[in-house]
Amino acid sequence: MKNSANQNQLILLRSLFKGREDVFALRWEKTNKSGYMPAYFYDPYMYRLHRQKGGTFKDYKDKTYLKLDDYQLSKHLSGEKFIGIYPLLKDNTSWFIVADFDKKNWKEQSKKAVESCREFNIPAYLERSRSGNGGHVWVFFDKPYPAIKSRKIILSLFEQTGVFSIFDKNTSFDRLFPNQDYLSGKGLGNLIALPFQGNTLRQGNSCFIDIETFIPYKDQWEFIREIRRVSVYHLDEILKSFSKESYEKIVIEDSSKTILNTGKLVIKLNNSIVINRNGLTTPVIDFLKENLNFYNSDFFCKKESRKKHLANQSFF
């Protein structure tokens, strides 16, 4: 009976948390450092000879990615390993999108994110992260969906409903997974920790929680069995509605009169400057965030921390 239950759990896990199956990542810890790296198959003896000649694992050629199979997933559920999955598929689609929240107000903002998704009839679910100090808001699709579309929908939805502002440096919203619209060809894209790792689950983390009480659901497997997936058709309809709501003119105005009219961007001048994000391209947004901020040590520390985090995931 135990083996049957475990097999059912594996089937459920694979059916819901679908990422790339030809590769996965493993979490490592050493002294005060930790991170993830792709899991490889290689001959330890031949690698040892390579090391003796001054080589490194990065430049060792005779290695291949391990596939994410039931054996590896079983190790994750038991707590022997901690697996990360790569959501962005080779065709730049994904089976889900996840919003990552951390910092002290992660509960408030993640709850708002779930409610905002549900306002648009998008089922969303909150998982407490591995550390217990953050949350992941999951949205699952009924078919693989282009990451460039899902990311645009969620970011637009969050901004329209006031979950966060792109100019708010104190927001607990950190990033989306997938964190790229397209694979660059130089890596695997960002990974996300697979829920239900045995050790963290026993601590009440890495599991789904109620957005009102923030208490884990008693039967996690029964809960995820009832999770609903949003249809890609519905997502396309939302994307179309967002496009129709975009401003058709560029208008710069003070509180009483129009100063400039040249296209799709609206800029309002008052005691503050309000810019409509729908009229901005990603490079322009990045420029504004980078150059129109007063120096803030927390912002730059987080920026450097993210660079180091991405460096740990440069995927040899």
Structural class: alpha+beta
Q: Which overall shape is indicated by the principal axes computed on the Cα atoms?
A: globular
CATH level-1 class of the domain at 86-233? Alpha Beta
User: Largest sheet, described in full?
Assistant: 5 strands, antiparallel
Q: Which regions have little confidence, pLDDT < 50, spanning 5+ residues?
A: 1-5, 247-253, 255-262
Number of H/I helices: 10
Proportion of residues in extended strands = 15-25%
Structural commentary:
By secondary structure, this protein is of the alpha+beta class. Among the domains are: 86-233, DNA primase, PRIM domain, CATH 3.90.920; 246-312, no CATH class. Helix content is 35%, strand content 22%. It is built from 10 helices and 15 strands. The protein has helices at 2-16, 44-52, 70-78, 106-119, 147-160, 198-202, 220-225, 232-245, 282-291, 297-312; strands spanning 25-30, 33-38, 40-42, 63-65, 83-85, 93-101, 125-128, 135-146, 173-177, 192-193, 207-208, 251-253, 258-261, 266-269, 273-275. The strands form 4 sheets. A 5-stranded antiparallel β-sheet has the order 9-6-8-7-11. The protein has a 4-stranded antiparallel β-sheet with strand order 2-1-5-10, covered by helices on one side. Strand 14 (266-269) and strand 15 (273-275) form a beta hairpin. Helix 5 (147-160) packs across helix 8. It is globular, with a radius of gyration of 22 Å. The relative contact order is 0.13.
